[in-house]
Every structure is written in structure tokens, then in C-alpha cells.
Amino acid sequence: MRLERAVDAYLRHISIERGLSDHTVAAYRRDLGGYVAWLAEHGVADSNAVTPELVAEFAADRASAQPPVAASSLARLQSSVRGLHRFLAREGLEPVDPSTRLRPPKQPQRLPKALTIDQVERLLDAPERETILGLRDRALLELLYATGARVSEIVQLDVDDLAHGDVLRVRGKGSKERIVPVGSYARAAVDAYLTRARPELSRRGRATPRLFLGARGAPLSRQSAWLVIQDAAERADLTAHVSPHTLRHSFATHLLQGGADVRVVQELLGHASVATTQIYTHVSVDALRDVYATSHPRAR
């Protein structure tokens, strides 16, 4: 099969059957266009003529390009190539998948960015206190920071998940449930929302058990929750990028800086492995230096 036709078939597959976004499909199109052009330079125009050696040579060529290609871009490029050949083999358009031995480059570990406690307080104080949506937004922000829950977990909460007073039942990845304590500030904000705002929002739409509702009474979406955080960050005059995960990172960082055990933080975050949680210990180096400077007899 001609490579151009193979690429078109694959792009239709990921767009229509897998439902990938136009932005993602466009990125795959650019990557695979470069791949097809490289193969053409090496005398290959048909997908059945691609060998594992050619795929490996293409990956090595891109990895040594000047100026250097970012590891994230290389990883996406290789994902595009693997996806194409896997699709062609699965559809019977290629006898074998020549990309099975292709391994993505190791990407540098990025430390999570956390807000300071002062920045968090400014963010939480940003929503208006007397409007219906302001009460909702404040409750949402307080609960995100108080529990370290993912935004997807927060918008899936039902009112009954708060039935136990000072703890919250969270359904995480793989439908695993965990119990997370809720501090007094978050509880007060949620109580104010439930008493003074949610009944009015609920009357605007169909009955739903979901805790957080949109302006028309429908369950609040992840995208809307993200916009709430962005609006609060602008109101708080926070120049750093603030996302739902920023509050999760800040939750973990502040707990560890306050002396919490990493395995307790692991449980609160719902991480399957403590290795995932330990990335947050790197952002507490300043706290470690302070303890060392004040505790070791020959630190100064």
C-alpha cells in the first residue's frame, strides 16, 4: 500500500473511530508527513517495504538531528510511527509490524510546580463570597486543596460522598475508593455552598446527586472546573501557570514540608506506588537544608 494512502487511512481511523482531537490528528499528520518524506529519500514508497532496520534508522536520525529535537517531540513522533504500523498490521495491510522494537526516548523527569501557602490563600480567597457561583467556586477550590483530589474526582462527587462530616469518599482511577479527611475551612465552604447556592442551581436543571453544578443546573464538567481555577488565578494576580494539578501538587508539597510521612501522602493522593509520590519530596529540599543547618553540629 502506498505510504500516503496508508497515512490517510490511519488518520481517518484515529479521528473517526478513536475520536482524537483535531489538534492531535494535525500533530500526527505533521509527524507522519516527515516520516514518509524521509522514507521516500531512502527509496521507499510502499508500506510493505518498511523494515525494522529502516524504522530504527529513522528514529536514530531524528534523535541526532541539529538543532536537537525535544524528547517530548521525539516521543510523540515515535508514537505516531508505531501507531501507523500497528494499525496497518492489525488491518492486514502489512504482513508484520516493523516498529515493534521501537522504544520511546526517556524523557527528563519534571518536578511538579507548587504554589506557596500565601499564593494558595490568595487563590482560595479570590471568588466572590456572596454570589451563587462565587460560593460554588470557593467550595470547589477549597475542596481541591484540602483533599489533593484530581479535578476529575472532584467533579464526579455526589452530595452523599460528604455524608461522614469531616471525611470525603473519593473514587479514583480504576474505580478505587479512598477516604480523605476534609479540613474545617473546606467543610465550611462546602456547607455554605450546599445551604446557600446549590439549591438554587439545582432548580435550574434536572435533579442530579452531583455535588458541584454548573450555572444551568447540570453537573459541573472538568473543563468548567478548569475555568474556575483560571478565573481565580487571574483574580488573585498569580502570574505562574495554575491548573487543577497545581493544587494537587501544592497539597502534597505542603503536607511533606509540614512533616507528613510520604506513605500517608501516597494514601491521600491515591497513588498505587510510593515511587509516584516520592517525586514530591524533591521540592522540599529547602526544608531539608533548614533542618540540616539547625540540627547538624558541623553544618555551619
Automatic annotation (TrEMBL):
Residues 1-89 form the Core-binding (CB) domain. It comes from the Bacteria. The keyword Cell division applies. Gene3D superfamilies: 1.10.150.130, Intergrase catalytic core. It is found in: Cytoplasm. The active site is at R150, K173, H245, R248, H271, Y280. The keyword Transcription regulation does not apply. Residues 110-293 form the Tyr recombinase domain. Keywords: Cell cycle, Cell division, Chromosome partition, Cytoplasm, DNA integration, DNA recombination, DNA-binding. Its main location: cytoplasm. Belongs to the 'phage' integrase family. XerD subfamily. HAMAP family: Recomb_XerC_XerD, Recomb_XerD. Forms a cyclic heterotetrameric complex composed of two molecules of XerC and two molecules of XerD. Site-specific tyrosine recombinase, which acts by catalyzing the cutting and rejoining of the recombining DNA molecules. The XerC-XerD complex is essential to convert dimers of the bacterial chromosome into monomers to permit their segregation at cell division. It also contributes to the segregational stability of plasmids. This is Tyrosine recombinase XerD. The lineage of its organism: Bacteria, Bacillati, Actinomycetota, Actinomycetes, Micrococcales. The gene is xerD.
